[in-house]
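Handout, section B. The chain below has 730 residues.
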Amino acid sequence: MRENHLMPELRTLSALLNDLLMIRRFDMVLTLFDEIVNGYIKPDIYIHTAVIRSLCGLKDFVKAKEMIQWMEFNGCELNVVLYNVLIHGLCKGQRVWEAINIMNNLIRKGLKANVVTYCTIVLGLCKVQEFELGIEILNEMIELGFVPSEAVVSGLVEGLRRKGLIMDAFYLVNRVLKFGVLPNLFVYNSLLNSLCKNGKFDEAELLFKEMEEKGLCANDITYSILIDSFCRRGKLDLATHFLDKMFKEGIKVTAYPYNSLINGYCKLGNLLAAETCFDEMLNNGLTPTVVTYTSLISGYCNEGELNKAFRLYHEMNSKGIAANTYTYTAMISGLCQANKMAEAIRLLDEMRERNIVPNEVTYNVMIEGYCREGNTVKAFGLLDEMVEKGLVPDTYTYRPLISGLCSTGRASEAKEFIDDLHKMNRKVNEMCYGVLLHGFCKEGRFREALNASREMVERGVDMDLVCYAILIDGTMKGHDSRTLFGLLKEMHDRGLRPDNVTYTNMIDRHSKAGNFKEAFGLWDIMVDEGCIPNIVTYTALINGLCKAGFMDKAEILCKEILVGNSIPNQFTFGCFLDQLSREGNMDKAVELHNTLLKGFLANTVSYNILIRGFCKLGRIQEATELLHGMVASGIFPDHITYSTIIYEHCRRRNLQEATKLWQSMLDKGVKPDKLSYNFMIYGCCIAGELEKALELQDDMTRRGMKVNQVTYDTLIQGADSQSSVLSADR
């Protein structure tokens, strides 16, 4: 065209420049522009826009700005699109502050920023994490009547969420909903997940409802997030409802919602429902993951079902699903709870052999296990190992160590350990100190407990209700009324109020000691403080009154319960039953027990009280009838029930009946305790059946029971009696 002295039209040139832009040949655009200018062709706004776009593509923002100034100087047409191209380029290059200046300039020049201008600026601010300013610009554009784009809303919501401003993100979504603008599903799901993880469950459910109302279709991730949220809150019925909804709506169901349900059921101790869920998962063709197996294994271990837990562990291994740190930790925890420390350490070794790294929780459960069995040496050895491996101990590590020392009468060592932790700037909380305070009080060292509590506060650890309750209990044991009221005043000054448990414990101690004036005085204080006595408080006072023989006052209190909102339970009535039996008033005791039976309040303990009362009076026939009657009522006798009647038979030298009852107890699967064995050994010895007595002693040892001094004394007396009889026969 140039050889023939023909010049292309502007629209031809614009089309050519746009094609070059499409293939990102920015250099050729600039070369062609120079030729256009040199050819005395006046570029139009479209050509200038293409040049600005090219300069931005080359990140030559200085020349891009100079181009606009040149256009202004030469009287070229300027519009908002041209500025938007420069603003977009600057924002893309994270030079958002320059972009904001350009926007302000175009407004000063009489041009109006449009929705693209504002959206570009907001997205640029999101890119440099300036979300608060992004919200301000968004507010400005809404006031001007512009509707933000989905990309803008999604960018701001996701940015606020990532910054931890979850509620700001939630409010933003609610605000733009009225304009019909929705974030994309990915952002919606992320916000939903963050709301759930931050405990904003009502907001999460509202967000889901709004999603449905606005026609945004939830996917499997949306449902999985909600189901997991319900499961964590123990709302398994709602979780199951949403799983059913997934099936009805044809949404693909994965292992994740099932994992949440199985974990939820296990946390509630409902292993049967968890197993049903697992079977349903398999029937639907889904493959269990390590999370599925770990949840079930943890559930079994928490309920003491170790055999099932290990069976599942071997099953997952056989299917090629590798156990992880959480799986091993769950099993180790189960073994520690069952006091099987040797097996727990073997599992820890296996874990290391498989290059699975134990975490803080793994060590914590092992340390707690050793402390529970009194082996603090190994527990502290694990603490050292834990630190060597770069793991950070916390209060969950320290608390069992402090408890282990205190439970073995070494509260002073526990105090030294806490002092060492304080010197190393390690955090020790009120739970750790509470254990120490209890340790000192248990050893009768209340003053040291009090000093430790003062030191605790000086170190910035606030006393809580539990710590005060421990100290109050210590003052009660030491009959130190002055310190007791001092502690109560201190609690009051710190804005703490004793709760039902604290008041009930104080009232119970005074009642048992027969100090009813003090007990009723505390009752009045409790009521004045707005702490309403519950059935446990009433029962504690009634128990003390009954034992002291003030049955009439106890009955008045019982009537007061009936007038109020509380309902007497089997323990409340048990106080009356026990006292009537001790007084030998069996007719009234039986009458009361029949009332309990009608109200379904009778239990093994109430039957045992009656049986003991009849046996004490030598009315063994009526005691035996009660034993048969409780079985007929669907209440199962325990070893105390059988032992009480067995002892009465033995005392009467009726070994045949005692042996018959003993065998009946064993046949019914009731395990005798040490006292039961001693009763039978006593019966055999006074009946001259020393060989049978020794057989019982052997059986006792086989069952893992230690023979005590009473057993030995009984056997020695039996042997002496038999020896005397043999001597007399000679």
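Note. The CA atoms of residues 118 and 141 lie 7 Å apart. Compare this with the example in section A.
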